[in-house]
Amino acid sequence: MMMYNCAIKEVRTKFEVLNDDLATAHNRNPIEMIKSRIKKPESIFKKLLRKNYEVSMASILENINDVAGIRVICSFVDDIYEVAKMFISQDDVTLLSVKDYIKTPKENGYRSFHIIVSIPVFFANRKENIKVEVQFRTIAMDFWASLEHTMKYKKDIDDADSIMRELKECADVIASTDIRMQEINKKLHYAKPSE
Amino acid sequence: MMMYNCAIKEVRTKFEVLNDDLATAHNRNPIEMIKSRIKKPESIFKKLLRKNYEVSMASILENINDVAGIRVICSFVDDIYEVAKMFISQDDVTLLSVKDYIKTPKENGYRSFHIIVSIPVFFANRKENIKVEVQFRTIAMDFWASLEHTMKYKKDIDDADSIMRELKECADVIASTDIRMQEINKKLHYAKPSE
Amino acid sequence: MMMYNCAIKEVRTKFEVLNDDLATAHNRNPIEMIKSRIKKPESIFKKLLRKNYEVSMASILENINDVAGIRVICSFVDDIYEVAKMFISQDDVTLLSVKDYIKTPKENGYRSFHIIVSIPVFFANRKENIKVEVQFRTIAMDFWASLEHTMKYKKDIDDADSIMRELKECADVIASTDIRMQEINKKLHYAKPSE
Amino acid sequence: MMMYNCAIKEVRTKFEVLNDDLATAHNRNPIEMIKSRIKKPESIFKKLLRKNYEVSMASILENINDVAGIRVICSFVDDIYEVAKMFISQDDVTLLSVKDYIKTPKENGYRSFHIIVSIPVFFANRKENIKVEVQFRTIAMDFWASLEHTMKYKKDIDDADSIMRELKECADVIASTDIRMQEINKKLHYAKPSE
Questions:
Q1: Mind giving me the DSSP string for D7-41?
Q2: Residue D120, pLDDT above cutoff 60
Q3: In the predicted model, what is the mean pLDDT of chain D?
Q4: Which of A99, B137, C157, D136 could tie B142 with a disulfide, CB 3.0–4.6 Å?
Q5: What is the ipTM of this complex?
């Protein structure tokens, strides 16, 4: 697991550098926050079994793509695509897959831009390519997703259907408000600063 | 300014303790993030002049309430009032004033719960009561406020009126979505966890 | 354990404030580093059994003084006594016991200044007085102690006696060098700064 | 300056990864602490003038090697050479120069292992090779160097000569104690852990 933790540190540093550069050169901080998590051993184990994969370290490295997860939370939707593009274009980042749940939201309303990349990490006496899942979201999408996530871990909910419908409606309102806020921001961006 | 920085550290620690306790005992993290800022010397100076106060350290300590500012960003509106109440009820926290811009939003749509408190800080050879402004907001209110804030520093905006109207509308949508999300959360809260 | 973690945060903040104040007002950073640790549940359990205490939360709070431990690492011996005095004299810090292993080193050469204090911590709905052990050391004492510590966890050491003798000698050399460095620092302290 | 700050972040992450790997795989933490500093604009300016270099950003990137400085503080002398070797052997680190003030201390007693490297940093829309100075020291060497450093900024010191002689003597005692402690550590390292 230490290996994945180190991969997270390397990817986090890459995003911090991008944010610092954009803050200095372009006077904007597209990244609001960076969160990270390591998948728990039991979840990895369950996933290996569920997918009929061998249970071994080599099998984890090859088959499980989301042991290391980073969440990059941006202010606006456009920031997501811009920062993701800058990150993917770096020499030592290999893009393995893309899932755009912003353009095509999940049925329940979930929105997020997911990529799996592989990056080299230099350990004491070897270099290893480690997979990392990066999820890009706006602040509002992230708030919605955290609520939707708690729903997964609950059962015996009265009105589960009506709650899901309500959640879906909130997701749509949030998505359209994100766009309206972004439009306002663009208009403000081109205005002259006050003295 | 060092004094105000230290006061911020003490207040931040108090909120971290509250959040840790609530996370352990009640399995919830009401506080999503804590941000802080120190008012710039030039802004303090301008404010002293504008309000016709003497320009001295003693005058700053007495007259300027928001040199040290902490922003406590919560998931839900109810969390704001609960965390604020816990904080205010602590022995060594003296509440000086309250402005509830959630119950009574500003005309432009601004929502936030502001308090001014005074807390003792122990320096090398003296104890000093320092004023700190604490702003409580939901994640969505904070996002809105950051956009509204950039508007203040811009001039020569075409359609300033229409942007302000649009911002106001977004504020209202955001406020009502916050309430809807809170209702969903309450319903989920009382449901049994899955096995 | 969360309670002890919170107590550590509060005490750490108090030392950071002292260091910031001394850095600004007196242009010196007496504290080089602050480390902390929570005693492991199994160690607490063993200690309760060894000392014939009841095994309960109340018993831990009353009988075990070093569940929460903070180490304050100073540059010079004089800093230790000065910082400790400032800390102890704070209104809300209650001094419970002192062991001065600098004035009276342990037989093996161990040097450190230990105090047990109790401080109030404000949780969600109660105030609790929590005990914290604070160990003050110079950088060199800390380095020595970390080596001596690894010795405790080893057995079957050839020449255990000669190693202990060698460690003891190093402790004495380190202590006298600490004093010489402190004397040099004092002489430099009173000299004028270059332009 | 932002560019150099980012380079420091990247190098710091590389050392943290090495330390994590060694801690997990070999149960040791060779790196005690990592400090960093950016050279102040006025110091850079003075150095450019003193060395008769052009005053421009391009000239800084080419001619000044220590704008970004990282200090890696290790427990033992052997750790220094081992960690330095691991770092230098990484694909994307280019070694530009080495100065070994441990093997050949400065006349005043200064000991430290210095290297200048260049590493690629990925900014928003370009990759830049940035120079970083890395200083490796033991804890004791670092403490000594910080005292020696304050001497440089003082003038009108009575007994400057005797202080310098005293400092030199302390440096030698410290160096020989470092070696003795390292020998003890080696002996302990090969002993069996207690149950």
A1: HHHHHHHHHHHHHHHHHHHHS---EEEEEEEE--H
A2: yes
A3: 94
A4: B137
A5: 0.92
